[in-house]
């Protein structure tokens, strides 16, 4: 006889632990991506006119990265209001694409030659792209937590058709007050 197990249901505590772990990884990835991108853009600014003004050299990337942060926060606000804010999307896209483009454009030969290996460009593009993706994931998690924190899943409602069907499968007929016949032993047919 095959015994079916009840449908897998996650506990709220398990979901909180997984969400907290994912949140920590996302925050670390966002911070690392922004830091690496920011530092590279500051180096680029230093090589192109701001090398004699360290304060301005380090402030310059903020003029670009602030677009990303403000755009993402405005998109979060818009989604909480259930509207589309095209200016917020434009801010985020401008900041993100600008950061990626300037990080890549700021690559210079690392081996003392005029030829720059393709990998140098890829390495320059990854931190701002990772920061974009991670910050977007962070905003999505915040939105899901804030927007509708107690939305029950269909499987949480014992009267939902999916839950009833799952229970019937699990019960193998027990819901009708009878025990299932062991495999291979059906009712006698005369």
User: How large is the radius of gyration?
Assistant: 27 Å
β-strand amount: under 5%
Shape: globular
Helix content: 55-70%
Q: What about the largest sheet? A: none
pLDDT < 50 runs, ≥5 residues? none
Helix and strand content put the structural class at mainly alpha
Number of E-type strands? 0
Count of helical regions: 6
Question: Can you tell me about this structure?
Answer:
- With 190 residues, the chain is an all-alpha fold.
- The chain is built from 6 helices and no strands.
- It has helices at residues 12-50, 54-59, 62-80, 86-105, 118-147, 161-171.
- Helix 1 (12-50) packs across helix 4, helix 3 (62-80) packs parallel to helix 5 and helix 4 runs antiparallel to helix 5.
- It is globular and about 70 Å long.
- It starts with 11 loop residues before the first helix and ends in a 19-residue tail after the last helix.
- The relative contact order is 0.13.
- The mean pLDDT is 76.
Compact summary:
Helix content is 66%, strand content 0%.
List descriptors.
190 residues; mainly alpha
List the helices and strands and how they pair.
Blueprint: H1 12-50, H2 54-59, H3 62-80, H4 86-105, H5 118-147, H6 161-171
Helix pairs in contact: 1-4, 1-5, 3-4, 3-5, 4-5
């Amino acid at each position: 006889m095959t015994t079916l197990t009840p449908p897998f249901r996650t506990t709220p505590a398990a979901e909180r632990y997984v969400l907290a772990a994912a949140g920590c990884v996302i925050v670390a990835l966002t911070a690392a991506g922004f830091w690496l991108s920011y530092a590279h853009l500051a180096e680029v600014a230093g090589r192109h006119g701001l090398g004699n003004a360290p304060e301005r050299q380090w402030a310059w990337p903020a003029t670009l990265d602030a677009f990303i942060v403000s755009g993402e926060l405005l998109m979060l606000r818009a989604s909480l209001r259930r509207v589309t804010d095209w200016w917020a999307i434009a801010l985020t896209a401008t900041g993100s694409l600008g950061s990626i483009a300037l990080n890549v454009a700021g690559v210079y030969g690392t081996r003392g030659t005029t030829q720059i290996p393709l990998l140098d460009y890829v390495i320059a593009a990854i931190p701002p792209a990772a920061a974009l993706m991670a910050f977007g994931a962070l905003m999505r998690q915040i939105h899901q937590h804030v927007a509708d924190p107690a939305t029950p899943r269909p499987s949480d409602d014992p009267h939902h058709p999916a839950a009833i069907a799952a229970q019937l499968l699990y019960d193998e007929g027990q819901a009708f007050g009878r025990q299932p016949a062991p495999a291979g032993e059906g009712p006698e047919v005369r």
